[in-house]
């Protein structure tokens, strides 16, 4: 076999189901991946391919580590943003870009993945020795699967692909988990049991560890409210009486309220990175316990009094075991906590009622999200929202109840991210309604990749909030994207009457269920307001 065929066989051994990217790369061009039983998907733009792989990783708890490939030079230049996004959001896949031939790889100004991707991948290697193909690809998968999961990259110079190698003798990599220090668990339990107002803050690590049941068990044991990061949204059911919702630039009022009431804040599976799209613990006399599987997160942005390093599920289970013998079944404060959450929430929603039910034209974007929230079957849905205003509309007002039913993000995020995330989610869960909400700026960035959804038979629901202003920068944005969607082979509908919002969403869902990628273009007001007291 040659190197191309060997890599394709290794991908199959690793359980890769999708190779997504853009030619020219022999893994695509020579049909090597397809011959190994791997579905090859070519996107319009390399960045969207990385976003799709990101989406697959998110909704499979990082279990499904897929592969990316692209052309040397321009392909690697185009794709670096998508890989960087996945790195920031801890979404694993293995990138296999082509590189310039070995004789030219260090010649200025040729773009080198080996050099330029080192800060946006977990590991970066260049395969220069064909006989090292097995160990090199194995290292990439091992890194992507274990610890803090992130993309790994192996650049293959174009003259290496056709080189002949020996017979394949490959063993797939495995995933490992790290258990927390029992002494740290005991100390954390002391703080949580003694706290008057403990608050739990759950991040994406809970999803990747599949620690949802243990999180709910701990919350109910402590009678403690639970907030999540945007990445962790859906780790705790938002219809649970102890739910505070997701922290973001726009968030439920009860979250901010309890954040300032807490005397112990327990962060589990989170990085506590300071960002407008997360929470910033108040600088008050309280105790912060930080549990993460990445020691590099500890004290990075937020000073903690105690660190508990380990897998989120194992940590939560250990805490439940440590605490359940120390507390009674009823600590006597559950009703008071639940009533306080409900009271603040009801007051907050009352302040937003006019926006959520607004019948004026152009359509209020909050009404679109409210109708979407009321119509969608949350048990059969995976949703996401793009950067900017769509995030601020969706994060507080689209309630999720099932694990892995929302793909959030927590750091810097590219416009156009949501389309690829939704397509990736649909590939991983074809039985689910996979939808994303975006605006003019995002459509301008990756809108043509809706054609990928129609060509590759990936029926997703696209909710486009068109206020004719690109990314809130007072830059006019024109065109009829519903008509573009039709021209690209999908279903498109433009909605201008607020009374048609709900019926249009129902029609869109029906189209998707019948196998047609769908765009619903709602003509909306140029309107947004924050739902976070410290930013208002």
Automatic annotation (TrEMBL):
Domain Thiamine pyrophosphate enzyme N-terminal TPP-binding intervals: 1-106
Pfam family, one: TPP_enzyme_M
GO cellular component: acetolactate synthase complex
Record keyword Magnesium present: no
GO BP field: isoleucine biosynthetic process; L-valine biosynthetic process; sulfur compound biosynthetic process
Cofactor or coenzyme needed: thiamine diphosphate
Annotated InterPro entries: DHS-like_NAD/FAD-binding_dom (IPR029035), THDP-binding (IPR029061), Thiamin_PyroP_enz_cen_dom (IPR012000), Thiamin_PyroP_enz_TPP-bd_dom (IPR012001), TPP-bd_CS (IPR000399), TPP_enz (IPR045229), TPP_enzyme_TPP-bd (IPR011766)
One Gene Ontology term of the molecular function aspect: acetolactate synthase activity
Record key words, sorted: Thiamine pyrophosphate
Domain (Thiamine pyrophosphate enzyme TPP-binding): residue spans on this chain: 386-521
Domain Thiamine pyrophosphate enzyme central: 185-319
Family from the record: Belongs to the TPP enzyme family.
NCBIfam families: PRK06154.1
Protein name: Thiamine pyrophosphate-requiring protein
Native source species: Haloplanus rubicundus
């Amino acid at each position: 076999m040659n190197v191309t065929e060997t890599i394709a066989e290794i991908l199959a051994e690793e359980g890769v189901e999708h190779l997504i990217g853009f030619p020219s790369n022999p893994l695509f061009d020579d049909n090597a991946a397809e011959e190994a039983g791997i579905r090859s998907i070519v996107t319009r733009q390399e960045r969207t391919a990385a976003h799709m792989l990101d989406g697959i990783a998110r909704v499979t708890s990082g279990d499904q580590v897929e592969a990316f490939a692209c052309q040397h030079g321009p392909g690697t230049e185009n794709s670096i943003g998508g890989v960087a996004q996945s790195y920031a959001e801890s979404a694993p896949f293995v990138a296999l870009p082509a590189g310039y031939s070995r004789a030219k790889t260090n010649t200025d100004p040729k773009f080198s993945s080996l050099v330029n991707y080192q800060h946006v991948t977990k590991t970066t290697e260049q395969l220069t020795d064909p006989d090292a193909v097995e160990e090199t690809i194995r290292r990439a998968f091992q890194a992507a699967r274990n610890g803090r999961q992130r993309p790994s990259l192996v650049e293959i110079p174009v003259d290496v692909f056709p080189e002949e190698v020996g017979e394949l003798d490959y063993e797939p990599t495995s995933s490992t988990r790290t258990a927390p220090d029992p002494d740290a668990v005991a100390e954390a339990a002391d703080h949580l049991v003694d706290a008057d107002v403990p608050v739990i803050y759950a991040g994406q690590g809970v999803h990747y560890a599949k620690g949802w049941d243990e999180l709910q068990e701990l919350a109910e044991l402590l009678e403690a409210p639970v907030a999540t990061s945007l990445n962790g949204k859906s780790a705790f059911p938002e219809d649970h009486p102890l739910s505070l919702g997701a922290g973001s630039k726009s968030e439920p009022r009860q979250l901010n309220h309890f954040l300032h009431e807490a005397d112990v804040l327990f962060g589990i599976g989170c990085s506590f990175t300071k960002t407008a799209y997360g929470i910033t613990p108040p600088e008050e006399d309280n105790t912060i316990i930080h549990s993460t599987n990445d020691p590099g997160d500890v004290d990075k942005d937020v000073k903690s009094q105690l660190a508990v390093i380990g897998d989120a599920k194992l940590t939560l289970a250990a805490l439940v075991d440590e605490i359940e013998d120390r507390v009674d079944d009823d600590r006597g404060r559950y009703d008071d906590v639940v009533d306080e959450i409900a009271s603040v929430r009801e007051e907050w929603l009352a302040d937003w009622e006019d926006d959520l039910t607004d019948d004026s034209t152009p359509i209020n974007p909050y009404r679109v999200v409210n109708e979407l929230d009321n119509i969608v079957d949350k048990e059969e849905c995976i949703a996401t929202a793009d950067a900017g205003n769509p995030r601020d509309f969706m994060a507080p007002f689209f309630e999720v109840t099932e694990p892995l039913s929302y793909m959030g993000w927590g750091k810097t995020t590219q416009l156009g991210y949501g389309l690829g995330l939704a397509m990736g989610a649909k590939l991983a869960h074809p039985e689910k309604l996979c939808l994303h909400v975006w605006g003019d700026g995002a459509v301008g960035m990756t809108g043509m990749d809706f054609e990928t959804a129609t060509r590759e038979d990936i029926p997703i629901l696209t909710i486009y909030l068109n206020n004719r202003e690109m990314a809130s920068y007072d830059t006019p944005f024109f065109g009829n994207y519903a008509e573009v969607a039709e021209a690209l082979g999908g279903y498109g509908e433009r909605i201008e009457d607020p009374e048609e919002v709900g019926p249009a969403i129902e029609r869109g869902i029906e189209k998707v269920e019948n196998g047609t990628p769908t765009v619903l273009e709602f003509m909306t007001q140029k309107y947004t307001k924050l739902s976070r007291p410290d930013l208002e």
